[in-house]
Amino acid sequence: MFRRVIGLFTALAAVVAAFVLLPAATASAAACATPWSSSSVYVGGQTASYNGHNWSAKWWTQNEKPGSTQVWADQGTCGGGGTEEPNPTGFVVSEAQFNQMFPNRNSFYTYSGLTAALSAYPGFANTGSDTVKKQEAAAFLANVSHETGGLVHIVEQNTANYPHYCDTTQSYGCPAGQAAYYGRGPIQLSWNFNYKAAGDALGIDLLGNPWQVEQNASVAWKTGLWYWNTQNGPGTMTPHNAMVNGAGFGETIRSINGSLECNGGNPAQVQSRISKYQAFVQILGTTPGSNLSC
């Protein structure tokens, strides 16, 4: 009898152990709804994403940020987190987060094109702490969003400017034609000398064939990363160095547009960039840091 009791307990222990060792069921995070907009009107039951969560409006609301439990019901995290596998690309921005940042983007600007371009500058969004990596990615994408209307525009919209971007004093001239070097891509690469410099750095003939920037998503993203990681522009440092060395987001604006926006040049444009950056760091679950303005 005693042996049978011991045997029974042993069997029960084995069953319990089997249940303990079973892997827990995993649940993928929900897809993010369209990002909340202060200019949109929401009625009861409509959803919006904000700060990495989906929210459901309890009743009619406008310009009341999700987070107020009196107006919004938190539907949980979205676009990442939970037990989701780490991003296989190694990039600190997941595809779901990218889609949340750019809900109305042109289909030309693919996430795969961006991640394919990362190999050209492996230090980008991959230097320093996790916070710094996310801040740099958010800073780049915020400036890109501002330059392209939310990744909508592939080429410069003011066609009257096109003939102006040929510097004939350069020894190599403008072999693709005087009006061929207009703004293209996520940071709107323009001028024949910039196409040559970017092409030389990337090993692509952009001087002879600048149209590649509007035809190949990876090439377009590479030109944006080229500027971000290697060019001071009208500033005193590259945008990459500004973010990884603690100079702050404001210095990235200076490196892109200098006095045209900074030092009182166009405060509204500066604030537009800052607001987008603040929204993007929230999506990535980090803080914006200091020195946001220029």
Automatic annotation (TrEMBL):
Single GO term (MF): chitinase activity
Lineage of origin: Bacteria, Bacillati, Actinomycetota, Actinomycetes, Kitasatosporales
PANTHER family the UniProt entry points to: CHITINASE 12, CHITINASE-RELATED
GO biological process, one term: cell wall macromolecule catabolic process
Protein's organism: Streptomyces nitrosporeus
Active site: 147
Keyword Signal: yes
UniProt cross-references to PROSITE patterns, sorted A to Z: PROKAR_LIPOPROTEIN
A Gene Ontology cellular-component term: extracellular region
Name used for this protein in its record: Chitinase
